[in-house]
Design brief:
The chain has 300 residues and is mainly alpha-helical. It has one domain. The protein is 63% helix and 6% strand. It has a two-stranded antiparallel ribbon with strand order 1-2. A hairpin with a 2-residue loop joins strand 1 and strand 2. Helix 3 packs antiparallel against helix 4 and helix 6 packs antiparallel against helix 7. The radius of gyration is 55 Å and the shape is rod-shaped.
Length: 300
């Protein structure tokens, strides 16, 4: 901007700098129709970048081919099948371990049975001998003149002969149905056969016990316990002796005949029982050998 001044004959031209207002450009209404608020938003908000979108092979709009469906089905089927196979194998190994444990326990039970049978066979041999002598005395001798023999024979003849078969393992096999774990059918049949033989022995022992109970009732009417003296008062199992003055409480021939009949019947049943015990012992021994061979158990 120029300002001219006149002073006399001379004139000077003074140049001045423009002001700040003059330097600020002005916007023309024709060049922009934006308001102040729109201008501020335009300065603050960034422009969104343009992103490229790649179509995924399994996009919802992607149409699968039949072999893709088949592959997915096959992989799913294979996973389920392998899981099922692995579970069956695990159960199989568990069953084999249980089977061996049961058979090992059964062998121990069978050994206990054999030992108990042997003891009862020895006791039964002694009882049968005394019973036979007692029946002979009652039938062919005068009991009043053989009182001491009567008392001595009655004590031994009254002893109980009965095997208590071990059922710890057998009860578990029966109640849980675990006998199915035994893969050898011949072995499982042998085990069932042994259990059947045990039932026969128990039935015979029950019959023998009934006869012994009735025989004992008659003996209490004939014999008196005051004529027995313990050999060792501290240990009643060491036996008893008979006093020299022993007498019968009742010498009624009919009562003595009844007592002789019960003693004779018990003797017959005892013979049968001992015969079955010997057979049962042989079965138990064979079964032990069968199990040890089948499962390769070492000899203890």
């Amino acid at each position: 901007m120029e300002v001219k001044e006149s002073s006399g004959s001379s004139s000077e031209t003074i140049s001045t700098l423009p002001t700040a207002e003059e330097q600020t450009p002005t916007l023309s209404l024709q060049s922009s129709n934006l308001s102040a608020e729109d201008l501020s938003k335009a300065d603050i908000e960034p422009k969104a970048e343009t992103m490229e979108v790649h179509k995924h092979p399994h996009h919802v709009m992607h149409k699968k081919k039949w072999h893709e469906y088949f592959l997915e089905f096959f992989m799913l089927f294979l996973a389920v099948f392998l899981g099922f196979l692995a579970e069956n194998m695990r159960e199989h190994f568990v069953d084999i371990r249980k089977e061996k444990e049961y058979m090992h326990s059964l062998v121990n039970d069978l050994r206990a049975d054999v030992q108990d049978i042997e003891g009862n066979i020895q006791l039964g041999a002694m009882v049968t001998e005394k019973l036979d002598s007692l029946v002979y005395l009652l039938n062919y001798k005068n009991p009043d003149k053989n009182t001491q023999d009567f008392y001595r024979l009655a004590v031994v003849a009254g002893r109980i002969v009965q095997v208590r078969f071990e059922d710890r393992t057998s009860s578990q096999l029966k109640n849980s149905g675990s006998l199915r774990l035994v893969r050898n059918s011949g072995l499982s049949d042998s085990i069932r056969g042994y259990w059947g033989q045990i039932k026969i022995n128990e039935q015979i022992a029950s019959r023998m016990g009934d006869l012994q109970s009735k025989s004992g009732d008659l003996a209490m009417q004939i014999l008196s316990n005051k004529y027995y003296v313990l050999n060792n008062s501290a240990n009643p199992f060491e036996g008893r002796r008979v006093k020299d003055d022993a007498k019968l409480l009742n010498n009624d021939p009919k009562l003595l005949a009844q007592f002789a009949n019960f003693a004779n019947n018990r003797l017959i049943v005892l013979y049968i029982y001992l015969m079955n015990l010997r057979y049962t012992k042989a079965m138990a021994s064979r079964l032990i050998a069968f199990i040890k061979k089948e499962y390769h158990f070492a000899d203890d």
